[in-house]
Design a protein that fits this description.
317 residues, 17 strands, alpha+beta, three-stranded antiparallel sheet, 8 helices, 34% helix
Length: 317
Amino acid sequence: MNRVGHEGKGESVWLGWFLHTILWEFARLADARGERRRAEVWRLHVSALKASLEREAWDGAWYRRAYFDDGTPLGSAGNAECRIDSIAQSWSVLSGAARPVRARRAMDEVDAYLVRPGDDLVLLFTPPFDKTTRDPGYIKGYLPGVRENGGQYTHAAVWCVIARAQLGDGERAAELFAMLNPVNRAASRAGVHAYKVEPYVVAADIYAEPPHARRGGWTWYTGAAGWMYRAGLEYVLGLTKHGEVLRIDPCIPPRWPGFAIRYRHGSASYQIRVDNPRGVARGIARMDLDGVRLECPAQGIVLRDDAQVHRVTVVLG
């Protein structure tokens, strides 16, 4: 969308959420370096940015995508094309900046308008650019429903999975993950013929309009593969490493009885079992390390490179 705001007066809503996230993290880094004044300046800007996003970007049921140089909104219910965009909604959640009620409503609208269960697609936006009078840029050079122009842009689709997990909706996060999992494209002969690309790597995009709906685009090189790995491992299964600390905070479908992970740390092996006896999506009731109850599971496990086999039991509830 290189011509949305090309005169320098337009605004990007999703990049507003992204800037909010980055500045907040950089403020933490500045604090760690003793640069308190710089951190405070950034936090003040973050606060003003958050207020502006809520005041100017909310469209009534979801967040707009951007504004053209003349102030015309994009990603608004009043637009004939690109009426709703997924990234502005998912990053309202990922940033942690949006009002919780609005963030959840925005993701519900993504489900309503951009998730297409029959084709197993999570669209970037809809409707595609075709006859719009305002030129959004080279994105319009793609046919409607192809690549970024209203198809599934997998990089953005994975952010929808992460957003759902962050909202605590393990069922929906897993459902969307299954839609994006390329191996499922080969579950039937019809799926293979529609997809036409390798089902063992992530496709950067999947077409959304007839006669090419469900056809995979570029494969092998997309950054969506790394994000999809993180979505599954860190946000659904809840396994994250911070320095020498391993934290476990799953967000799974309540119907899952549990799962197991074998995690290697240097010469040590951690055998992790997660049990879900009460059928919940999230919440740790108990965590044991080598038979000893951990008083504060949220603090995680201090990893040891000791050539031993450690057993971790997590009970959700």
